[in-house]
Amino acid sequence: MSGDNRSAAAGARSATQWVALVLGIVFLVVGVLGFIPGITTDYDTMTWAGHHSDAKLLGIFEVSVLHNVVHLAFGVAGLLMARSLSLARTYLIGGGVVYFAVWIYGVSINRDDAGNFLPVNDADNWLHLGLAVVMILVGGFLPPLETRNAEPASHRVD
User: Using an 8 Å Cβ cutoff, are 40 and 34 in contact?
Assistant: First the structure.
């Protein structure tokens, strides 16, 4: 194997890293879109946090400034953690656990309660559950498959 091929192989991303990178980009885009009037309906009702925000991303998902900032932070984390397989796996499983907790919060909170700091609706809850399941499954099962299917160093032809 030539030096160029080794450096290309060393810089190659695993499928798990690609998933983390793509999710990071999606979260960044969603976070930015949440701040754009028109894409976010009832933009003028957006609050920092709390259930009084009637702003809806794409007219469907309730958002607040805090909600958008969290999406941006998840996006940055995805970009940074996609740099290695172990970090990408941690991002996917950890993020999935966080989204599972947000789903539990969303289905159990009294939406009109003063303690409700995160605007959520049924669409948000289904999305959070879906994200949780996908992120945990991909982070839990894809890396072992990649590792098991990788060619052992002792069998490589240089």
Answer: yes
Farthest CA pair distance, the chain: 65
Residue partners of 33: CB distance under 8 A and separation at least 6: 39, 40, 57, 58
Whether the predicted pLDDT of 138 surpasses 50: yes
Residue whose structure tokens are 């805090």: 66
Angle at 126 between CA 100 and CA 37, to 5 degrees: 105
The answer to whether residue 6 scores a pLDDT higher than 90 is no
Q: Which of 134, 116, 135, 125 is nearest to 66 (CA)?
A: 116
Q: How is residue 135 written in tokens?
A: 């992120």
Which of 79, 92, 99 is CA-nearest to residue 146?
92
Q: State yes or no: pLDDT of 9 exceeds 90.
A: no
Report the distance separating Cα 10 and Cα 131, nearest Å: 30
Rounded Cα distance, 9 and 133, in Å: 31
DSSP 31-50: HHHTTSBTTEETGGG--SSS
CA dist 48 to 4, 9, 147, Å?
50, 45, 43
Residue 37 gets the label, from left (phi > 0), alpha (psi -120 to 50) or beta, of: beta
